[in-house]
Design goal:
- With 218 residues, the protein is of the alpha/beta class.
- It has a single domain, classed as Restriction Endonuclease, CATH 3.40.91.
- Helix content is 34%, strand content 25%.
- The protein is built from ten helices and nine strands.
- A six-stranded mixed beta sheet has the order 1-8-7-6-5-4, with helices on both faces. A three-stranded mixed beta sheet has the order 2-3-9, with no helix packed on it.
């Protein structure tokens, strides 16, 4: 899978210039590029509109970051008085926790993810966060109404005006490497947040994406 663009709305303070942030970004980019489908080391999508699921796409991403020492599905408070549930993946730094969410919901979910990370930075509960979501080009082949980068981009100016002394907040747009009608459709059936906790357990315990692919093709 490839990165289309990265945008940072908050980039302030000592952490924003630190080696720890540089390492975090290296690990995130590496994990995104590890996401494959249909063939090894490449993400090939079947270009059927609204035909593919979304949750399985992030399995290699999560597994790669776990191998770097990140913590998956960590329960943490990102805002006073709000219980947002587990965060997809979190890395502890000497400046505080850094959170990453991989979008599997609609545009409202994208807003909630950025809002809670922004409030978390304001209230010094996290030092930073990144939302990863599909480009519009990829989103048209995924579950209907999946949040996408271009759809939420008009609101980025809101986050650029958040007043903090230190912190990092951004979004990364991702896309497929190639397309083919020979590629199996990415399974649906557990899109969204309601069942993802249970279904992500096996991959984090060592199930390989190739195993998931084999199962989906049976």
């Amino acid at each position: 899978m490839k990165i289309v663009t990265e945008e940072f709305f908050i980039h302030k303070g000592e952490f924003s210039q630190s080696k720890e942030l540089n390492q975090i970004l290296i690990e995130i980019r590496t994990a995104i590029k590890s996401v494959s489908w249909h063939v090894e080391d490449s993400f090939i999508i079947n270009p059927i509109r609204k035909g593919n699921g979304v949750v399985p796409i992030k399995l290699n991403f999560i597994k790669t970051l776990v191998s770097f020492g990140w913590k998956a599905e960590k329960r943490m408070r990102l805002a006073e008085g709000m219980n947002p549930g587990p965060i997809d993946i979190v890395k502890a730094t000497s400046y505080g926790d850094f959170a990453v969410e991989w979008e599997t919901g609609n545009i409202s979910s994208s807003h909630r993810a950025l809002n809670k990370m922004a409030v978390g930075i304001i209230q010094d509960l996290i030092i930073g966060g990144i939302l990863i979501l599909p480009s519009r080009n990829l989103a048209r082949y995924l579950t209907d109404r999946i949040g996408n980068f271009e759809e939420i981009k008009p609101y980025f100016s809101l986050y650029r005006n958040v007043i903090v002394d230190s912190g990092v907040l951004g979004a990364i747009a991702i896309d497929y490497d190639d397309f083919s009608d020979k590629s199996p459709l990415i399974p649906k059936g557990y899109d969204g947040r309601s069942r993802r906790r249970k279904d992500l357990n096996n991959p984090l315990l060592g199930t390989k994406l190739s195993d998931d692919l084999s199962s989906s093709e049976k």
